[in-house]
Amino acid sequence: MRLVVIGNGMAGARLVDEVRARDKDARVTVFGAETRAPYNRVLLSNVLAGTAAPDHVRLPEPAAGVSVRLGVTVTAIDRAARTVRTACGQVEPYDVLVLATGSEPFLPPVPGVEHAIAFRTMDDCVRILRRAGTAEAAVVIGGGLLGVEAARGLAGRGMPVTLLHLAGHLMDRQLDAEAGLVLGEALAGLGVTVRTGADVTAVRADGVELGGGELLPAGLVVLACGVRPVVGLAREAGLAVDRGVVVDDRLRTSDPAVYAIGECAQHDGRVYGLVAPAWEQAVVVADLVTGADPAARYRGSRLVTRLKARSVELAAMGETHLTEDAAGQVEVVRFTHRARGIYRKLVIRDDRLVGAILLGEAPTVGTLTQLFDRGGPLPGDPAGLLFPGLSAATPADSPVRMPDSARVCECNNVTKGRIRACWEDGARDLAAVTARTRATTGCGSCRDAVEGIIGWLCEQEEVHA
């Protein structure tokens, strides 16, 4: 099998890793438009904040024998001949082709947008940091997940930062209005000025113009206005394209020899913008193209969004915007403590957790994530899920109460049982467990939980020694 992968980001790199783990003799060629080796794009906000260096977010090197063409753009796919052509005229044949072209930043149609820097790649991050070294103030346009992370990162470097968002509250796709308000207040306490309902009419070299003619002075303007799947190559090749490249449960496109994964793929009408679904898709395609599991299918992903901003803890999952209905089919349990930056909300339907928002201190986030992921019935009084100890029936996040089936690392689908098995096999610290399971290598939010389980296992060994 000659496998060609277009895209060397987190989805493409993981696919190559999974394929070679199943077939060490697979002939794999990867084309990456970026000149850099693959890196963890999720952790770019840590680089921006100065809590991680660029080298710290690099992904593992591909296995020996994989041909990686960095800085090479594929310009055409000939499906009849089963070849791809690059910008430099190279023609590469394939038996199986996988599109992992990802997404590109959405640039708002306003005058002067070229004066701003989109926050998407490592090169963008380097440009932002270079300009931040001389700018007296920064403006971030876009109050979604990435915009909040960028604003917090720059503020952490001591810069005055203004975060502009067109909608009425921050992260309006994941949060309800009250949670967005509490998040804005938490960011304000960390040095970020938040302005919602802000209509940007122009970007200038010296700042940003708003509706009504107001000018916000800034030597640095960062764009975080969302992304769009990169589908041009697929469309020109005659593949079915909607918002993304349309795929079935096998992640095949309208051409059975061509697959698509990650942010460019549209499965069951949905395009995912997080890393966990991309990695789940990579596993399915690797199973199929190597023959390791011909029955492998992708059935969609249950998403948990984690904010990676220093001093701001946030997790959102499922149908967070639902409200209680007259028929009593939806129950909402909510708690707010704005002075401490705490907002907790559970959305319950048919005795199942279908949505949750956890902002600020959230000691039961692990338990709630497990309940949401499994889709099982809720234990005990729902209030006990927000306040540990209130209900004896509420499972605790302590490793001793956590079942082995509990998923600790959402990004890499690593359970407590798998961590235990690695520990019993000799992996006695975080680095060793990470090397074997990839836990903590996605968004990194599970690091404390993984370390806690390892520490608990070590303590149990000492007790029984």
From TrEMBL:
Residue ranges of domain FAD/NAD(P)-binding in the record: 2-282
Pfam families: Fer2_BFD, Pyr_redox_2, Rubredoxin_C
InterPro entries per the UniProt record, alphabetical: BFD-like_2Fe2S-bd_dom, BFD-like_2Fe2S-bd_dom_sf, FAD/NAD-bd_sf, FAD/NAD-binding_dom, FAD/NAD-linked_Rdtase_dimer_sf, NasD-like, Rubredoxin_C
Keyword Iron-sulfur: yes
GO-annotated molecular function: iron-sulfur cluster binding; metal ion binding; oxidoreductase activity
Protein's UniProt keywords contain Lipid biosynthesis: no
Keywords of this entry: FAD, Flavoprotein, Heme, Iron, Iron-sulfur, Metal-binding, Oxidoreductase
Positions of the BFD-like [2Fe-2S]-binding domain: 408-454
Cofactors named for this entry: siroheme; [4Fe-4S] cluster; FAD
Domain NADH-rubredoxin oxidoreductase C-terminal: 304-366
Source organism, top-level taxon: Bacteria
Pathway this chain belongs to: Nitrogen metabolism; nitrate reduction (assimilation)
UniProt family annotation: Belongs to the nitrite and sulfite reductase 4Fe-4S domain family.
UniProt protein name: FAD/NAD(P)-binding oxidoreductase
Species this protein is from: Sphaerisporangium rufum
Gene name as annotated: nasC
